[in-house]
Write a structure and sequence with these properties.
Blueprint lengths: L14 E7 L3 H10 L7 E4 L9 H4 L16 E2 L11 E2 L21 H9 L7 H10 L4 E3 L7 H14 L15 E4 L1 E5 L4 E2 L2 H6 L9 E4 L3 E8 L2 E8 L5 E12 L2 H11 L2 E2 L1 H7 L5 E2 L5 E3 L3 E2 L2 E5 L13 E5 L10 E6 L18 E7 L7 E4 L10 E3 L9 H18 L7 E6 L7 H10 L2 E2 L31 E3 L14 H17 L3
Parallel strand pairs: 1-2, 1-12, 2-9, 12-25, 13-14
Antiparallel strand pairs: 3-4, 5-7, 6-18, 7-8, 10-11, 11-12, 15-21, 16-24, 17-20, 17-23, 18-19, 19-20, 21-22
Helix pairs in contact: 1-11, 3-4, 4-11, 5-9, 9-10
Protein name: GMC family oxidoreductase
Family: Belongs to the GMC oxidoreductase family.
Organism: Streptomyces coeruleoprunus
């Protein structure tokens, strides 16, 4: 691997005030905020290399080339009887985490998202309390630039508005919405298509200027060290294979994401007692909720061949989208589409469909999925990947699958409408002959993919919630000196793409930490 020299030079001291496990979306925010105080030392343990001087990472439109590559932990999915068992969950192994790896679609969570968390026991996380954190974000969040607005994406927006009667939205973050079509807001710099990821926005400007910020790159955290009920530090393995204990005087903040945070806890003996004992892992703290409540935003795909090539300009090839509220009783959109300016046929090809030379895709997505999965270990060896059982489409009333069927039907209505219809030659998959509910459901579930939004595996909740892993102050229940701040703490899934919610979790966590040390 061509790994740039880490910045700044790694320190040999192994005791810091705070140890942040994961230099990703939330970890970058927390490290930046804590080190504004020059008297506070912070170590960031990041399993991957720096993203600095990496155009393959920093150029937003090159995101697809990162999937499955050397900067991807690439987690498989367990067999899914009602879904697609071949889904690979990309998790980034690079500074900035998944904000260095994804499309940077940036939605301020809807008020109903936060209020739902508060109702689920996350006291103090309601919309009125959380909204100010959005204004603190350092990322450059802007609507897709005019020069990046591809002609066929523009025509998709017009056609969706004409076919469905939804409003055109210019700037989804300007005010709450429950339906609309338009170009997304992205965390990027339009002038050069460079990311405004968590690392770019929060770490790059200060990483050479703050001697109290220590980036331990290519350093993998595999076990927490506890002294009784207090987290003392983290056992890590360096790139050269050496192992050591990185200690925290004040707190360990785990920001390793919805897969690697519960994985780290479980390998540290923190989790469901019976599961740990079955693998021979000494039980340090029986915490039944670790790994439970695994959430995701599954979506399916409908693909059309176009009459010819599509204009090349784009920010990241999925620049526009649509939100629909089918149920007027809910305060949020209950169906979403990403519009891909490429024929997204990775999963349909497994069923025998052929990728057209030129094409586009619509991907019906479930904003509030009702299925819940589980993450668990299969081995006491920390190097063995955990099992991710999302239990896709297993909700009792089949709401999730029905949402995708509705989505395919609405996508076809949009495809019939001008000006988009003039671009489209034929429906490639599932194909116009597939029309029945059962056929469409079977297709939609078999070709379903993820938009890489795992969440919820260390959920936040009230003291009487037996499966809550963290309290509203993000402290791990029953332990001292350790908090979690990443997508794993989500009690429920946000109706919109969750990256900004994770940034705001980071900002809130920094506030909680700073408030207790003043």
């Amino acid at each position: 691997m061509n790994t740039p020299t880490p910045h700044p030079i790694q320190d040999t001291d192994t005791v810091y005030d705070y140890v942040v496990v994961g230099g990703g979306t939330a970890g970058s925010v927390i490290a930046h905020r804590l080190t504004t105080d020059p008297g506070v030392t912070v170590a960031v343990i990041e399993g991957g290399p720096s993203d600095r001087d990496r155009p393959d990472v920093l150029t937003l439109r090159r995101w697809m080339g990162l999937l499955g590559g050397d900067l991807d932990y690439d987690y498989p999915t367990t067999p899914q009887p009602r879904g697609n068992s071949h889904i690979r969950h990309s998790r980034a192994r690079v500074l900035g985490g998944c904000s260095s790896h994804n499309t940077l679609i940036s939605f301020k969570p809807l008020p109903s998202d936060w209020d739902e968390w508060a109702e689920a026991g996350a006291e103090g996380w309601h919309a009125a309390a959380m909204d100010p954190y959005y204004d603190r974000l350092l990322n450059n969040i802007v609507p897709v630039d005019e020069k990046d607005r591809n002609a066929i994406a523009r025509d998709f927006v017009d056609a969706a508005q004409a076919a469905l009667g939804v409003p055109r939205v210019e700037g989804f973050n300007r005010k709450p919405f429950h339906e609309g079509v338009g170009f997304f807001d992205l965390a990027y710099h339009p002038e050069d298509n460079k990311r405004s990821s968590a690392s770019v926005a929060y770490l790059h400007p200060v990483m050479d200027e703050r001697p109290n910020l220590h980036l331990l790159l290519e350093t993998w955290a595999y076990r927490l060290e506890l002294d009784g009920t207090r987290a003392r530090g983290v056992h890590v393995r360096r790139a050269d294979g050496t192992e050591e204990l990185i200690e925290a005087r004040r707190e360990v903040i785990v920001c390793a994401g919805a897969v690697d945070t519960p994985r780290l806890l479980l390998h540290s003996g923190i989790g469901p007692k019976s599961d740990l004992e079955a693998l021979g892992i000494p039980v340090v703290h029986d915490l039944p909720g670790v790994g439970e409540n695994l959430l995701d935003h599954p979506e399916s795909v409908i693909v059309w061949e176009t009459h010819g090539p599509i204009p090349d300009n784009s920010a990241m090839d999925s620049d526009a989208g649509l939100f629909v509220r089918r149920d007027p009783e809910v305060p949020y959109p209950d169906l979403m589409f990403h519009f891909y300016q490429v024929p997204f046929t990775d999963n349909p090809e497994r069923l025998g469909y052929e990728r057209p030379a030129h094409g586009v895709s619509m991907t019906p997505n479930i904003p509030k999925p009702r299925s819940r999965g589980r993450l668990h270990l299969t081995s006491a060896d920390p190097s063995v990947k955990p099992a991710l059982d999302f239990r896709y489409f297993t909700d009792e009333d089949d709401y999730d699958a029905r949402t995708l069927v509705d989505g395919i039907r609405l996508a076809r209505e949009i495809a019939k409408a001008e000006p988009l219809a003039g671009w489209l030659k034929r429906e490639v998959c599932p194909g116009p002959e597939v029309t029945g509910d059962e056929e469409l459901s079977a297709y939609a579930r078999r070709v379903a993919h993820t938009v890489y939004h795992p969440a919820g595996t260390c959920r936040m909740g009230a003291a009487d919630d037996e499966l809550a892993v963290v309290a509203p102050d993000l402290r791990v229940r029953g332990l001292d000196g350790i908090r979690i701040a990443d997508a794993s703490v989500f009690p429920t899934m946000t109706a919109v793409n969750p990256m900004v919610a994770v940034l705001m979790v980071g900002e809130k966590a920094a506030d909680l930490l700073e408030g207790e040390t003043r």
